[in-house]
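Data card: per-record layout.
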Amino acid sequence: MSSPVLQLSCPAKINLHLRVLGKREDGFHALDTRLCPLDLSDTLSFSEASATPRISQLTCSDASLPTDETNLVMKALRAFEKATGTPQSWNLHLEKRIPHGAGLGGGSSNAAMTLRGLNLLSGHPLSQETLVTLGSQLGSDVPFFLYDAVCDATGRGEVLTPLDFPWQLPVVLIKPPFGIPTPWAYKQWSTSTQLHGVLYAPQLCPWGPMVNDLERPVFEKWSLLPALKMWLLDQVETRAALMSGSGSTVFAVAQSETDAAALATKAAAHCGETTWVKVVRAGHP
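The structure for this 285-residue chain is written out next.
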């Protein structure tokens, strides 16, 4: 493969709050959520396709991820081709660091940076507004990653308002060795109930209330996750704890960066070696 002509960072996100307001006529759910980028990211590289015929293809450092037309990167590339009327011929490579099925937006971020990269390499034929529209057709979280800011989102997640967010939050991410399908979580939301002894109420913080309505359906089915949230809330280092998006990642905002490091060590010992634990910062990139 030829050397990359462009490399883009694809950041992860957490939801500092996520309220489900009901089902819309289009089948999606109406949301009120705050999305916050992390300093954890994948890397997307663009190299010129040299093979004949000159067609775009995707490779990935994570062999468990499909690299065919079902991958959001390839879907984004096809959407860009359709919008511009120009065939693209790139070798795309994803170096994955964000776990998938985690509620951290890795696939959506990859798609957003595919659109941004192709637009840059093509001489900016599409406006930011058009890129956001294309992104919203690929997935509800995709437009957020085109803003490079903490954002409040409404609609089905695609109506975004960038925020002045002065905090850099020390965060510990904990992802068990399973993922959760986002459509399943939303489908179960309306009929789910709260578990006894689990905190679902908003946790009041200087940066806003932390609450996630999708904890209700997910916690009913995956009992490890409410136990993990309550364990985190019992730790002296924890300021607040929440599931991100539709899970399976549960995260804690620590009192300080030192506390985050200590909490991560405790969490790794508590959860065992099959669980992914990572210390990150949340806030403006």
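Known properties of this structure: The chain has a mean pLDDT of 94. The chain is about 30% helix and 30% strand.

See the next section for split statistics.
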